[in-house]
Amino acid sequence: MGIKKVKANTPGRREATFDDFKDITKFSPEKALVVIKKRQGGRNSQGKVTVRHRGGGARRYIRLVDFKRDKFNIPATVAAIEYDPNRGARLALLNYADGEKRYIIAPIDLKVGDQITSAKELIEIKVGNALPLKFIPAGLAVSCVELTPGGGAKLARGAGNVIYVMGVEGKYAQLRLPSGEVRQVSKECLCTIGQASNPDKRHISLGKAGRRRYLGFRPTVRGTAMNPVDHPHGGGEGKQSIGLKNPKTKWGRPALGVKTRRKRSSDRLIISRRSKRK
Fold first, then answer.
1. Same domain, 236 and 183
2. CA proximity to 40, closest of 27, 30, 50, 31
3. Model's pTM, two decimal places?
4. Tell me, what DSSP letter sits at residue 102?
5. How far apart are CA 192 and CA 106, in angstroms?
6. Same domain for 129 and 231?
7. Distance of alpha carbon 266 from its chain centroid, rounded?
8. How far apart are CA 140 and CA 24, in angstroms?
């Protein structure tokens, strides 16, 4: 992917940058592999808003992505590299030897015409192949890693994400995650060789509020701009500080820098926590 700039004809386009889509080889999705995305507006099954600032946006289809890679020892040819409006990474359309078609998250350097395979035993270590972590050499970059064997990829699925295998010891493989956390994962879990595609996604500047709305995000109002009845930071004449020792959420709970992770049984598998972002 490349990033292109445009003429600064308006204030909204002065700082805006755009994807040039030069790595895309097919612009319409495979009809058998899409479903209509139902809009929920951040609401749960009871109709209550559980995620604020969601709504509107362009209409999309959901691409059915194969995160399990469970067609073992059947070679597949990369038929196309496609854009997915629901994620940052590109999708690769695979044509299997038995006639089936599936989408996968495309790693960097995967090209149309390449042949890739998924297997539970040792196969060639090349970009796009999927195999268990126990066969991955130390220091190799992988993506789309499972947390439990057969559970489907959960880690490093976003644009440009990469996990480095530190080594395999006993029943577990040690992985360095994109956040900097080092943790153990069962060595039987599948992974895809290579870094997830489209790493330049993070450098795109939207430039104006309208592009944010196209993505399905509604405006976020500052607490200090509200009335006291609506937010703990509200009230005051003009530009006021929050007036509290520590910032709070809309519901009065501590905010900013407060740990929210609950205790989990998998905590014992974490070797070192992620470092604070600077």
1. no
2. 50
3. 0.88
4. E
5. 9
6. no
7. 21
8. 26
Contacts 24+ apart (CB under 8 A), 71-77: 71/96, 71/100, 71/102, 71/118, 72/118, 72/119, 72/120, 73/117, 73/118, 73/119, 74/98, 74/117, 74/118, 75/115, 75/116, 75/117, 76/102, 76/115, 76/116, 76/117, 77/113, 77/114, 77/115
170: exposed, middle or buried (Cβ count in 10 Å: 0-12, 13-18, 19+) = exposed
Question: Are 180 and 266 within one domain?
Answer: no
How confident is the model over 187-215, as pLDDT tens digits? 999 999 999 999 999 999 999 999 999 99
- Compute CA distances 90 → 10, 65, 250, whole Å: 30, 11, 37
For residues 79 and 44, state if they share a domain: yes
The secondary element (H helix, E strand) that includes residue 211 is: helix 209-214
d(CA 67, CA 203): 26
Hey, what are 88's tokens?
């940052």
We report the CATH number of the domain holding residue 254 as: 4.10.950.10
Helix (H, G, I), strand (E, B) or coil at 202: helix
Q: What is the CATH number of the domain that holds 145?
A: 2.40.50.140
Per-residue pLDDT, 129: 96
Q: Which residues pair with 159 in a beta bridge?
A: none
Pair (195, 230) in one structural domain: no
